[in-house]
From TrEMBL:
It comes from Charadrius vociferus (Killdeer). Belongs to the immunoglobulin superfamily. IgLON family. This is Protein CEPU-1. SMART domains: IG, IGc2. GO terms for cellular component: plasma membrane; side of membrane.
């Protein structure tokens, strides 16, 4: 009936003639180790040893911040986690084409990153104690504009005509329109320029003979620029 421990978290439970037990409340990792039960008999003490293994749910303690990088650069992501037993750490790219893990380590290295590798990367820390914990890092890949669609258009005199210029870029492209070498100004009579993140639309409300000709769409951001020519014809 002796409790050789001053810790108030350790409680002697009701004993029977064949069973003796203690209860440890609010278990901590420091409670791990060997515990000895000693029974005094007529001849000599008999002891029995029990080893307590303390398990701890995984916890991510450090993870890389969101990052923005130019295409072709190198990326290094870190995910540090604790737990008992030591958690297994895996990285996964959250994208429509994601297939399995891309790294089974605390560190994820991407050399010569491409625009397709942008998006969210998920770190998962798991052991058998509790459900895995996950956190995500957003990787933004910057690249110069690429014009994907710019078609010439035929419109009769007096009708409404539209020239469309589609471009992908990160950061989003700024658009400018030129007729021959002359830049078209926003609000020019009979014209409307509508710029969105991924396209620019040039609208002619009432096409005249003077509107026919060659038009150039220029898409630019801080990484570069590109252009495409198209014709408005009768």
């Amino acid at each position: 009936n002796d409790k050789w421990c001053l810790d108030p978290r350790v409680v002697l439970l009701a004993n029977t003639k064949t069973q003796y037990s203690i209860q440890i409340q609010d278990v901590d990792v420091y409670d791990e180790g060997p515990y000895t039960c000693s029974v005094q008999t007529d001849n000599h003490p008999k002891t029995s040893r029990v080893h307590l293994i303390v398990q701890v749910s995984p916890k991510i303690t450090e993870i890389s911040s969101d990052i923005s990088i130019n295409e072709g650069g190198n990326v290094s992501l870190t995910c540090i986690a604790t737990g008992r037993p030591d958690p297994t750490i895996t990285w996964r790219h959250i994208s429509p084409k994601a297939v399995g893990f891309i790294s089974e380590d605390e560190y994820l290295e991407i050399t010569g990153i491409t625009r397709e590798q942008s998006g969210e990367y998920e770190c998962s820390a798991s052991n058998d104690v509790a459900a895995p914990v996950v956190q995500r890092v957003k990787v933004t890949v910057n690249y110069p504009p690429y014009i994907s669609d710019a078609k010439s258009t035929g419109v009769p005199v007096g009708q409404k005509g539209i020239l469309l210029c589609e471009a992908s870029a990160v950061p989003s492209a700024d658009f400018q329109w030129y007729k021959d070498d002359k830049r078209l100004a926003e609000g020019q009579k009979g014209l409307k320029v509508e710029n969105k993140a991924f396209f620019s639309r040039l609208t002619f409300f009432n096409v005249s003979e003077q509107d026919y000709g060659n038009y150039t769409c220029v898409a630019s951001n801080q990484l570069g620029n590109t252009n495409a020519s198209m014709i408005l014809y009768g």
